[in-house]
Target: DOCKER domain-containing protein
Amino acid sequence: MSLDYCTSPFPGSTNSIPFRVLQLVNLSQEVALIVLDVAQTFAHQLAASQRHRHWPHSESLFHSLLSLHLRLADEHWSESVRLHVIAGLALFVNLFRARLFEGGPLEPLYMLIEKVLIQMASRLPAVQAAAAALLQLILRNGYEVAQGYFASQILAQSVSPSTKINNQANGGRKGVSSERLGRPGSQTGVALARLLGFQSVLSNSAAFERGLSAVEALVDQRKATSFDLAVLDLLRQLRGVMTATVALKDAANDPIRLADLHLQLADSYRGSAALRSAWFDTLAELYEQDRWFAEAAVCHAHSVAIIARELEERKELEVDWRVFEWINNQISETEQSQGGDAGNVQPAGFTTENLGAKIDKTAAALMLAERFEAVGPLYRLIVPVLERNMNFTSLVSVYAELQQTYSRAAEVRSSGKRHLGTYFRVRFYGENHFKQEHNTDWIYREMGLTSLAAFALEIKEKCQRQVGHDRVQIEANEHLDMAKIDPTVAYVQITHVEPSISEDSATPRPPTVSNDFLLHTNLSEFSYECAMVENERKLSKEPAIHEQILKRTVIRVSSGGFPSARRRLPVISVNYEQFSPLEFACQKLNTKAEQIRKTLSAAANGRRLDVKGLQLLLQGAVLPTVNAGPLAYAEVFTKDEQREKYGDEAIVKLRESFRNLMSACQLAIEANASAIGSDQQTYHEVLVSSFDAMHERLQTFFGASLRGNLEPDPSQLPRSAMHILDMMGGVRN
Model:
């Protein structure tokens, strides 16, 4: 009814229009409450009927009743109506508990939670408090259903030993809030992230923050149960999503921060397969624009895992999750655990065609990153499907791609011209400048052979933009002198670190090649060494041999390692190893032997023998002008006072280190003899005589021969040496 037609019963009255408005408001409230009462009656009837028999139109009626409740909670309704609707929704949740929290599509639950979050941003305190209580009720129901699911998994584990591994994984994931809270835990983050995308007012809403605080106030933190802790963890994640959404624009010029925000938002969409995959795809595109192809491949692989999991749940694909370990071993653990129970994730309707297209993108990124070894295992996901569907055209394309990939892999193995990354330890110091990053340690991965100077310049420029001034100082020292710290300066410590694999690691130790694929995959341990004297002071001048010690720092980063969806990972532990002067000497001898063997093994793998490099290594080991170094170790540590200090067992280790070096030198001399021409024969004879003289002196120090009885094996000679022998024998290749 239009107000233009309203007339006052009392002529001249000025209160006629407000009175009429009040009448209309009361009438609309009464109509809304009548509709709500009728809807609740239908809801009771529907819930009762579903316990005994199935109505043919029960699904559409359920959706209609829920939509009616949600529309009555819109902003234009009065406070009284909205409070009654929220109470009615609580009753609705209890009536259809199984339908919302145990099975069926996730869309109704998502719609319900989205409306509750909007009510939590209301300017009316009573509506906020009621919405907070309703969200608490929804989370409580989800928690109870999830606890029943986990209990059944534990029971299945106790009954069936074959399921032990899978259920251990499920049990280990109970600490994740989204799983402990079941379906609502995963859908709350999805609902908030969508609201932030479509209703920007929510991202900076102080009212919504008060709504979150109202939920937090319902938790008794003094006697917090596992449910209370899960709710608090979920609230922390929701606040993180809000912060990340606002910070996206500010991080446009900071690629590392931008990647962190993308991953944080991807985690907020763990209840939606399509949206989580979309955030990984967006981050992969950003990486590809800046030519960070290894990181882009990891992001694409996450999307592959998301699609594969959905197809596996629909019984359309059998997934061997081990294939993702060739890229990053955290991918399968993360994507298999997202949502725990399959019913917690909104399906995206992915098909095997989507999987094939995403695998092609991942393979292309792996090729550009020169990580050829990971392409073959990845295609194992889709090849059985293509064979089953007799899609021969696609199979031809796949095998052509594999042929090209393995050709490139053989090429780089032969040439040795592949560098999968350089790593630096970075520590930020300056609380007034770096805020939360003050006194934190990180490992950065850089492309190829990035020098320390180039990286230091890059990180300095980045920090200057971050702190807003030019007073950024790069430090190469391991420890800062706190007495000389200038509070107006931001300090950045940078150290070049080498990848390493611990002795007790389950990862197979790769060949001793600095850029080996296995060494640079799932890489989580690094080390660097520093020569010192026994009082742990850094060397300022060359001390005596028996005073030199070696300090090795071993650093571990978070699980998963490099390559990762992030270009840097936080340091989680730092350990120190110290080696005595004699142990230091043994390491130097073994390192020299290892360098010689690596040069020979490279030729055995199909490369041309690096004759000049081999001769330089031999010259450094045996020629009289420079062999004082190795022989000096024997001369110093075989003296009586050193024997008494270290004992016979340590001297035996030194002797075996020399034996290792002499054995490597003997192999190198034999290879050099086969590879050189007549113009270098005199030089070779000098090497041989120096080797013999060195052996005689070592025999006087240790009282035993250190020469290995090695017969030359023509089949093990480098190809260049075999070629020379063939030519001498008149054999043509």
